[in-house]
C-alpha cells in the first residue's frame, strides 16, 4: 500500500512557507489505518524492540500509539502539554525555534526499569521526541526506540535524538 498517497499536503499551514503533512486522510481510510498499525507492529517486532509501554506524544501520537500498543501487547502512556493531566506529573521544558515548551507525564505512569517505545505521527526537527526521550530516561526507563509515520529527512531531526533505533514508514 502506498501510504504517501493517503497523506494530504496542506500548503502554508500553520504559517506561510510550511508544507503540512496531514495524516487525517490516512486515518479516515480503514485499510490505510489498519495497514499503518500492522506495518508499524511488524517492523517493531522485526527489530526486536520489545516494549512494556508505548508512549504517545500529544496529540497525533495518541492516535497511532494506542492501537499500536494494543497490537504489541503493551500499555499506552500519553505525554501531554502542561495542565492536561489530572494527577501529579513529571515535566520537562525544552527549546523551540522561538522560546520554550513543556511536556508532562503522570508520575505513576512509568516505573524505573520499564522498556519504552516513543511514537508520534511525524519527526521534523526532533525537539519534541528528544524531550520525551529525556523525560522517559529521567524516570529511569529504558528507551527501546522511536516510531514515526513520517520523517522529514531534510530537517535532520534524527540527529537530535538519543542513540536508539528509529522506525519511520514514510520519508519526505
UniProtKB/TrEMBL annotation:
Instruction: Assign the protein's first listed, main location to one coarse class.
Output: cytoplasm
- Taxonomic source organism: Scytonema hofmannii PCC 7110
Question: What is catalysed by this protein?
Answer: AMP + diphosphate = 5-phospho-alpha-D-ribose 1-diphosphate + adenine
Stated name of the protein? Adenine phosphoribosyltransferase
BP term (GO), one:
AMP salvage
Positions of the Phosphoribosyltransferase domain: 30-151
Q: Which UniProt keywords apply?
A: Cytoplasm, Glycosyltransferase, Purine salvage, Transferase
Task: Give the pathway.
Answer: Purine metabolism; AMP biosynthesis via salvage pathway; AMP from adenine: step 1/1
**Which major enzyme category is it?**
transferase
Q: How does it assemble?
A: Homodimer.
Give the EC number(s) under which this enzyme is classified. 2.4.2.7
Amino acid at each position: 500500500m502506498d501510504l504517501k498517497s493517503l497523506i494530504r499536503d496542506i500548503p502554508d499551514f500553520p504559517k506561510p512557507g510550511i508544507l503540512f503533512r496531514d495524516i487525517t486522510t490516512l486515518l479516515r481510510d480503514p485499510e490505510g489505518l489498519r495497514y499503518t498499525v500492522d506495518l508499524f507492529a511488524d517492523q517493531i517486532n522485526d527489530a526486536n524492540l520489545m516494549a512494556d509501554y508505548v508512549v504517545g506524544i500529544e496529540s497525533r501520537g495518541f492516535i497511532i500509539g494506542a492501537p499500536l500498543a494494543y497490537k504489541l501487547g503493551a500499555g499506552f502512556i500519553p505525554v501531554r502539554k502542561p495542565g492536561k493531566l489530572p494527577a501529579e506529573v513529571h515535566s520537562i521544558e525544552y527549546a523551540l525555534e522561538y522560546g520554550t515548551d513543556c511536556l508532562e507525564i503522570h508520575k505513576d505512569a512509568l516505573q524505573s526499569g520499564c522498556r519504552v517505545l516513543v511514537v508520534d505521527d511525524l519527526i521534523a526537527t526532533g525537539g519534541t521526541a528528544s524531550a520525551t526521550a529525556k523525560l522517559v530516561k529521567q524516570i529511569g526507563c529504558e528507551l527501546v526506540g522511536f516510531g514515526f509515520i513520517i520523517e522529514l529527512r531534510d530537517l535532520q531531526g534524527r540527529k537530535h535524538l538519543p542513540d536508539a533505533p528509529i522506525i519511520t514508514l514514510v520519508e519526505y
